[in-house]
């Protein structure tokens, strides 16, 4: 026993196995002398760890064993770099540490020296000079489950009263107080900003879910670089200010906007959201707009200012603030973007524009946004990207959006943050990008936690794993992660340090009645038969829904503004296969598991590698190309069964990707010779049929493939709504109401 306990502890390890109290205790003490210094119960100390490591803890017990060995029991604090944030903490205050409930026994001679540790309120506008002299301070608790940083429970403050604690505010009341939803009444309105919004799936789902908890979450602003995606959002959400611009430009614009508002808006100007119907139309894609200010004849007169942006919209290479100008005597086709400097004689128009924009919240000011959600693209880590910068992923330009996302959070200081990303963010370069994201949130004094969620667990026939990061100001409750509603076995092994981040029931844990997993047939069996050549964007359904999923997905439930009277089926058209591929696909048998290996002239070795059969004359297509293309034979060293693979009715698809390419993924309809249509893919992502998509066929597939599965976002929205009403328990996970997946 002695040897085992003599070992000093490592903070990054598993806390459970280390927490076995000493049993053969002879007596306890209230104080002890170590190296000539007297230590009392409740004192904090620097404590020797493994090797040269030194840790910080509070002494909560002194004890002597029957063998006369002296121990102390310690409750540990974590330095930022000892937490899951690890090396991504260089910008943290070195004096800030995190409370933990992890305790264990150590030999008395591990104590090095006394430390002064102060608890402060996380809500304090932090000013170290106002603190009593202190070696370290803490304002939050760290727990390993879901890499959680959160407010300390109320009783902690009391415990701390003897210590040099300042202004120990209790930030939240943890009493569960479920929202009253009688006669469907909604309690509160929260404003949402969707960054990197794509077609807006994530915010759409969040708003639906929040409504179920009694919160009226409204997407006020949405930003995306992709013009067709922006048009999709606007089609579904007329209440949203959709901005087709880069997030980094949006941030600069916000800073300029704040200055303009300070300059032009009088304090007594009322700031209220306008009714949705007076919001302007979606600003046009800046890249499409042309500025010909150099050529503009001098006598042109500005009639009105229509919009504002920051950036290099006209390709002049200059990053600057610009107004969209309507010229007197000209129409919309002649509108141009003009730099603010060139409009010096239009001060009155600028003032009117700013006052008007301020009143109708054209752009958010700090404090206007309650929730920011978004999936900043990290192309440098995508598993599909072979050219990634492994050594320093944050310096990779393609990962810069993670920094921009956090900078926008820092600027706007929303109450809640939800960031989504591929799970590689926790794996690539030892998870440094995920650690960075968490570290930025914690540094900005957000409570935070990280969960890995499989979409299939919430009622879609698609596995799709994603990482989600919650953030909540200290004044709020940290949202939980929603437990699965559907019985799906998650076969995924996260990196060791994120094993406690997988959202689901633990093995052996009693689960409530879960719904059966939704399979491909449940999701799409009711859709009309269409060929590879079908090119209509609209058609009638022809058949009634057959399953609960189909009934739900057809009901007009997306909270969107476009509601059609006659049910019309949109986007049920496939990416048209070219002739060669179409001939190949027609030859793939309509049976479970069929793929290119079922084409004639191939043999599969014991090594599971497929090769051409030398005794078989290679079949050629009319184009002269081989029936079995070379790329199918070489894909994944000839071991893959995915090229030209058919899905089957009883299957779950791994992940819908952004391009409808049947050369490298199973994407063929079970019984029709074509790839899944846009609508079929949308259903696999849980988009309601009423959700409209704008763009070319490829652009629409991309928007669907990029999206957060709507049922996942809906479940997270419910968790957010509960937290915003302070109706959340201390646990990291929440059980969704019965029949949540199919409730409107
Ligand atoms: N969360 C979205 C999907 C986001 S996909 C949903 O649920 O539907 C990522 C999006 O980031 C893409 O639509 C892409 O156009 C956009 N994007 C990429 N770089 C950007 C940038 N610099 N600024 C704004 N948007 C960007």
Total of DSSP H or I helical runs spanning 4+ residues: 15
**Radius of gyration, taken over Cα atoms and rounded to an integer in Å:** 30 Å
Number of extended strands? 29
Share of residues in helices: 10-25%
Largest sheet, in brief, is: 9 strands, mixed
Q: Choose one word for the global shape.
A: globular
Overall mean pLDDT stands at: 88
Small molecules in complex: S-adenosyl-L-homocysteine
Structural class by helix and strand composition: alpha/beta
- β-strand percent reads 15-25%
Uncertain parts: 1-10, 12-17, 155-182, 275-293
Distance between the termini: 59 Å
What features would you describe in this structure?
The structure is a single chain. The two termini are 59 Å apart. By secondary structure, this protein is α/β, with parallel strands linked by helices. The chain has 15 helices and 29 strands. Helices cover 20% and strands 21% of the residues. Strands 1, 4, 5, 6, 7, 8, 9, 10 and 11 form a nine-stranded mixed β-sheet that branches. Mean pLDDT is 88; it is low at 1-10, 12-17, 155-182 and 275-293. The site of S-adenosyl-L-homocysteine (SAH) has 20 residues, from α3.
Task: Give me the secondary-structure topology.
Elements: H1 2-6, E1 25-29, E2 31-34, E3 37-40, E4 44-48, E5 54-65, E6 70-78, E7 96-107, E8 111-115, E9 117-119, E10 136-143, E11 148-151, H2 154-159, E12 188-195, H3 201-212, E13 215-223, H4 227-236, E14 241-243, H5 247-264, E15 302-311, E16 320-327, E17 336-339, H6 347-359, E18 371-374, H7 400-412, E19 416-421, H8 432-443, E20 447-454, E21 465-472, E22 481-482, E23 486-487, E24 515-516, H9 520-524, E25 538-539, H10 548-554, E26 569-570, H11 579-586, E27 602-604, E28 610-612, H12 630-634, H13 678-684, H14 697-706, H15 710-724, E29 733-734
The chain binds S-adenosyl-L-homocysteine.
Residues 196-202, 223-226, 229, 246-247, 375, 377, 401, 706-708 line the site of S-adenosyl-L-homocysteine (SAH).
């Amino acid at each position: 026993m002695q040897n085992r306990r003599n070992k000093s502890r490592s903070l990054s390890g598993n806390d459970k196995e280390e927490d076995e109290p000493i049993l053969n205790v002879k007596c306890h003490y209230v104080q002890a002398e170590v190296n000539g210094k007297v230590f009392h119960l409740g004192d904090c100390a620097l404590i020797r760890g493994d090797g040269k490591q030194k840790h910080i803890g509070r002494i909560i017990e002194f004890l002597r064993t029957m063998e006369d060995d002296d121990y102390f029991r310690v409750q540990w604090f974590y330095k930022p770099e000892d937490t899951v944030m690890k090396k991504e903490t260089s910008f943290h205050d070195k004096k800030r540490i995190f409370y933990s409930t992890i305790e264990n026994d150590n030999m008395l001679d591990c104590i090095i020296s006394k430390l002064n540790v102060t608890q402060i309120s996380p809500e304090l506008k932090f000013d170290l000079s106002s603190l009593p002299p202190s070696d370290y301070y803490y304002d939050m608790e760290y727990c390993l489950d879901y890499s959680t940083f959160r407010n300390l429970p109320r009783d902690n403050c009391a415990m701390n009263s003897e210590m040099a604690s300042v202004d120990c505010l209790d930030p939240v009341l943890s009493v569960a107080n479920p929202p009253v939803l009688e006669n469907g009444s909604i309690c509160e309105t929260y404003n949402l900003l969707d960054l990197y919004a794509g077609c807006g799936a994530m915010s759409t789902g969040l708003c639906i879910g929040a409504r179920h908890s009694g919160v009226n979450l409204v997407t006020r602003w949405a930003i995306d670089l992709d013009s067709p995606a922006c048009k999709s959002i606007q089609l579904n959400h007329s209440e949203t200010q959709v901005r087709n611009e880069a997030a980094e430009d949006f941030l600069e614009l916000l800073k300029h906007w704040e200055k303009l508002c300070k300059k032009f808006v009088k304090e007594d100007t009322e700031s209220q959201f306008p009714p949705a119907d007076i919001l302007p139309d979606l600003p046009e894609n800046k890249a499409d707009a042309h500025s010909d200010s150099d050529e503009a004849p001098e006598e042109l007169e500005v009639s009105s200012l229509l919009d504002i942006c920051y950036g290099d919209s006209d390709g002049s290479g200059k990053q600057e603030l610009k107004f969209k100008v309507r010229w007197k005597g000209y129409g919309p086709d002649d509108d141009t973007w003009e730099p603010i400097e060139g409009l010096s004689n239009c001060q009155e128009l600028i003032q009117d524009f700013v006052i008007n924009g301020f009143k109708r919240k054209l752009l958010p000011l700090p404090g206007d946004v309650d929730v920011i959600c978004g999936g900043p693209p990290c192309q440098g880590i995508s598993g599909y990207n072979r050219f990634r910068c492994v050594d320093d992923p944050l310096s990779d330009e393609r990962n810069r959006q993670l920094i921009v996302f956090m900078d926008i959070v820092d600027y706007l200081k929303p109450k809640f943050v939800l960031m989504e990303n591929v799970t590689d963010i926790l794996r690539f370069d030892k998870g440094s990008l995920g650690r960075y994201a968490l570290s930025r949130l914690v540094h900005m004094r957000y409570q935070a936690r990280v969960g890995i969620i499989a979409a299939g667990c919430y009622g879609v026939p698609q596995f799709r794993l994603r990482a989600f990061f919650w953030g909540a100001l200290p004044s709020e409750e940290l949202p939980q992660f929603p437990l699965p509603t559907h019985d799906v076995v998650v076969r995924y092994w996260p990196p060791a340090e994120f094993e406690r981040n997988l959202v689901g029931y633990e093995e052996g844990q009693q689960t409530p009645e879960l719904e059966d997993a939704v399979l491909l047939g449940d999701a799409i069996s009711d859709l009309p038969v269409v060929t590879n050549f079908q090119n209509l964007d609209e058609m009638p359904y022809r058949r009634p829904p057959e399953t609960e999923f189909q009934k739900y997905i057809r009901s007009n439930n997306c909270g969107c503004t476009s509601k059609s009277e006659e049910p019309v089926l949109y986007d049920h058209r496939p990416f048209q296969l070219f002739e060669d591929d179409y001939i190949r696909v027609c030859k793939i048998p309509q049976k479970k598991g069929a793929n290119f290996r079922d084409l004639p002239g191939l043999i599969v070795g014991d090594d599971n590698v497929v090769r051409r059969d030398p005794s078989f004359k290679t079949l050629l297509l009319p184009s002269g190309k081989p029936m079995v293309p070379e790329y199918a034979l070489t894909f994944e060293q000839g071991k893959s069964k995915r090229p030209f693979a058919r899905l089957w009715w009883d299957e779950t698809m791994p992940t819908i990707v952004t391009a409808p390419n049947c050369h490298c993924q199973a994407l063929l309809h079970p019984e029709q010779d074509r790839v899944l249509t846009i609508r079929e893919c949308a259903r696999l992502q849980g988009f309601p049929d009423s959700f409209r998509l704008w763009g070319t066929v490829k652009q629409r597939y991309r928007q669907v493939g990029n999206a957060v599965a709507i049922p996942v976002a809906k479940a997270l929205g419910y968790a957010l709504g509960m937290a915003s009403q302070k109706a959340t328990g201390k646990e990291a996970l929440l059980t969704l109401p019965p029949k949540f997946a199919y409730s409107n």
